Amino acid sequence: SAWSSLNMKAETGTTSRRNFGAAIAAGAAALVGAPDNAKAYDLPDLPYAFEALEPYIDTPTMKIHHDKHHATYVANINKATEGKDEVPILALQADAIEAGKPVRNNAGGHYNHAFFWQEMAPADEAAKMKPSAQLAELIDKSFGSMDEMKSQFEAAAAPGAVFGSGWVWVCVNQAGDELKIVGTPNQDNPLMKGVADEIMFPILGLDVWEHAYYLKYQNRRPEYVSNWWNVVNWDKISENCAYVVENHAGVSV
Amino acid sequence: AAANLRSSALPDKVAKSAAAYLSAAPSGGKHELPDLPYDYAALEPVVSAETMELHHSKHHNTYVTNLNASLEKLDAAVSAGDVSGIIALQGALKFNGGGHVNHTLFWENLAAPEAFKAPTDGALGDMIKCCFGDFDKMKAELSAQTIAVQGSGWGWLGYNPKTGAIEGATCANQDPLQATTGLVPLAGIDVWEHAYYVDYRNVRPNYVNAIWDIINWDVVEARLLAAQKAAGKI
């Protein structure tokens, strides 16, 4: 799309404000009649087609989730940060609660969804992947086994655990030596000060807002959650783990 | 209240009534999913039959089932004098009890579009004029608040027993209006995504704007009169 031709990500992979002038020069031809392009944040493209995660996540859900829900968070965080210094979306997370609801909900929403798309892959590719040695060791140390981790994760994702809309995360703790599972409401995430006992660094997260699964699963959230493991990109999760353990910082999106 | 800590030590008569209170249901045992006062298709085109069936027979039904299960656990914890256990159940009770209460109120304050009657006169009409100016202004104000709910929650028109006025309010998740704010619920609008996703996808404003046409204003007025009476205002 014309829009994605402007998504010139910095080498570190961070999503941040591009040079306005360069953007105009590069995109002018493609952008006749397009909306204002002087925005800090962009809706990132999915790393796969909308139908790629079938049958576990359906095509219409991927389309609406990305093109409507995520896009709205991007539009809203752009509005909320208009006129402010340009920073990567990751940098807005730590003080998001203090910054007030528009930033909390929309900086969180943008980060969470950008993070989410990257940690999934088509089922046939995902099936060939497994956690790195480092990640596997952390999983066994923190939970006993992968099965035990999945079981605890599914319990944390159940409707009786996250009472309304929210996310469930596997995070590396501050010390970098243990994994924790934490559920967060609405668009909060463990990178935000005040959400958990300490800031933690997500390596894996699952959207359990109803919009993430309603078209295919209706109220059957447990089925959505147990099916989701089929599309987890364990290579990316392992990368996330290595990065956060080394840097004591959140993954860039 | 202190007696509840050791209900197994209470005299039989009192113990029985305590247990009955804890399981307080008209059926004398468990809470039940109420029937809708109309067919699943009755609220079309504002809310589809598909949504109504899912919403009633799956979502609301699950709250009822889980409320009953939580109350059984509560009975056991009370009988055992297990205060930690009692406290640990509060989240589930609020969530499932609130879900049951909220949805029961909701079904009752909806009606077929053909039955729509604007609340322009009578006790409710006067109260709307008094507190909001007119019906359109009330809708605009409540719509804005309700659409703005973050994540899952409800929009409400409520009666304030202290001031005697009606006002708009919102609650998160399944938090029940009266227990949370003290306002008496008059009309509720469910804005959990399950309430509108099938019909409106992510466009919550379209759903909220449309639902005013299927509010049962007779029921709302009846609730207002009951609330005013209970508050000693009439």
H/I helix tally of chain B: 10
State the oligomer.
heterodimer
Which blocks of ≥5 consecutive residues of chain A have pLDDT under 50? Answer: 1-37
Total strand count of chain A, please?
A: 3
**Strand residue percentage of chain B:** 5-15%
Uncertain segments of chain B of ≥5 residues (pLDDT<50)?
Answer: 1-7
Name the chain pair with the biggest interface and residue counts per chain: A-B, 22 and 22 residues
Written account of the structure:
The complex is a heterodimer of chains A (253) and B (234). Chain A is mainly α and 253 residues long. Chain A contains nine helices and three strands; from the N terminus they run H-H-H-H-H-H-E-E-E-H-H-H. Chain A has helices spanning 20-27, 59-80, 101-118, 123-126, 133-143, 146-157, 214-217, 221-228, 234-247, and strands at residues 166-172, 179-185, 201-207. The longest helix of chain A is centred in the N-terminal third of the chain and has 22 residues, at 59-80. Chain B is mainly α and 234 residues long. In chain B, 52% of the residues lie in helices and 9% in strands. Chain B has helices at residues 12-22, 49-79, 83-88, 90-108, 122-132, 135-147, 177-181, 197-200, 204-211, 217-230, and strands at residues 153-159, 166-172, 184-190. In chain B, strands 2-1-3 form a three-stranded antiparallel sheet. The relative contact order of chain B is 0.13. Mean pLDDT of chain B is 90; it is low at 1-7. Classes of the chains: A mainly alpha (253), B mainly alpha (234). Chains A and B meet through helix 2 of A and helix 2 and helix 4 of B.
